[in-house]
Amino acid sequence: MKADIHPNYPAVEVTCSCGNKFETRSTFGKALAIDVCNECHPFYTGKQKTLDTGGRVQKFADRFGAFGAKKA
Ligand SMILES: [Zn+2]
Q: Where does Zn(2+) bind (predicted)?
């Protein structure tokens, strides 16, 4: 590798909102907090799930009534 042209690419810990943790490398250089990962994304689990980030689904249900979203 050529000297002094490559960015710092350290190992970082990634924490998902489902509790899953794994390590990767990133030029970001800090621990990452993510909403969805390969352990909990419906594409990989095969189960349908409403990804309710920040209560947005509930906000929609409050505003437009019961168009499908169930109250928790
Ligand atoms: Zn996850």
A: 16, 18, 37, 40
**Is 40 annotated to bind ligand?**
yes
What the chain holds in terms of domains, given with CATH numbers, is: 11-64 (4.10.80)
Q: How many angstroms is it from 10 CA to the middle of ligand 1?
A: 22
Say if CB 31 and CB 39 are below 8 A apart: no
Q: 31 CA to middle of ligand 1, Å?
A: 15
